[in-house]
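Try it yourself: sequence plus flavin-adenine dinucleotide, in.
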Amino acid sequence: MTHRILVLGAGYAGMAAAVQLAARTTRRDDIEVTVVNARERFTERLRLPMAATGRQLAELTIPDLLDGTGAHFVRGRVTALDPDGKTVRIDHETTLPYDTLVYGLGAVADTTVPGADAHARTLDSAQDAELLATRLAGLRHGTVVVAGTGLTGVESAAEIAERHPGLHVVLLGRGEPGAAMNPKARAYVHAALERLGVEVRRAEVVKVLPDAVELAGGGTVAADVVLWTSGTRVAPLAAAAGLMVDERGRVVTDATLRSVSHPDVYAVGDAAAIRQGYGTLHGTCQSGMPAGVHAALSILRARKGKRPKEFRFGYYHTPVSLGRHDAVVQFTHPDDRPRRIHLTGRIAVRYKEVVTASPWPTYGRMKKMPASGAFWPRGGRFTRVAR
Ligand SMILES: Cc1cc2nc3c(=O)[nH]c(=O)nc-3n(C[C@H](O)[C@H](O)[C@H](O)COP(=O)(O)OP(=O)(O)OC[C@H]3O[C@@H](n4cnc5c(N)ncnc54)[C@H](O)[C@@H]3O)c2cc1C
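Structure, out:
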């Protein structure tokens, strides 16, 4: 009997799971790995702020990466899950059966604020970034409001201000940019934004209009373009299928990354609520890839009748670009609190580029040497705490 493993979503986490599974089962005919993704092209989300100002993204395709592993690729949009019948609907028309499912559909910008869906742009895909790049290139003067002072907002505002000095860029959000960094690194972020001419405003956007954003407490900011980077949300697919999800709709996993309600389902990346001793992981590439690898190893151990190991992960850095020529790398404790040490300037730019470029070669290495993907900081005492 062939055991069918279906990986939903070939982003940073799903791809890591798929390659790890495929590489370890290449010569086995008792396991079949199939990867489903909405697009054939791998989306380098970490590069989308740069793509939004015209940088060409590399043509990285999922079938190319899987080539030679024996894994199958299905291009299509997952439209429903039936965890009891163990099937997945693709594009409302095809049904794929599975024995084990890896749920890695990621998250998108949370555009639930009124008007955001209709009038704001997002950076969820290469196409979003390319459309924004075209719009910005056609705008000689005017105001771009970047809503959301998180790291994606900071990176996007800095990129746009640097590439389009004729535009007025307003970075607008509830929190302080660089809030999670140490005071010196945070001050560096502020100075860089000021140097680039980005106006930083602490305010909450309550509505997006065709030509402005409305703020809590009254007042508006006129905008020719609004880029929405504030918060993320996951697809309601898992919740609709009856999987146990958290308050944000993410699949709740046990220590081995298995759904707590459906043992045939594993969840990874932004779509999963993965507990560690210090709290639930927040969406990053640095945690998503290890989670993908770990889920693959858990599945294979369970297949062999061995007890899967606990997933333990500790954060180690937050690299943030500030345009193409400046960056900050905040080193962190395993629970993501900032350490005193950080890098700035050209060395930080180089560090950030190495990190951003690393996933694809990492997958390539894993294809040949699966064990090479299994190295990440386990978090020491921070992840030893009982759940
Ligand atoms: C602009 C931007 C910049 C970022 N910068 C950084 C950074 O510098 N460092 C960092 O660590 N993190 C960064 N992040 C966060 C990081 O990109 C995410 O944490 C990471 O992508 C999560 O990986 P994932 O595999 O869970 O989801 P994703 O990488 O989003 O992959 C999900 C995949 O599922 C596919 N998919 C979704 N729904 C469906 C469906 N219904 N059917 C079929 N396929 C579907 C998508 O097309 C995608 O390929 C950034 C995010 C954004 C938006």
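One thing you can check immediately is this: Residues 229 and 300 are 37 Å apart (CA to CA).
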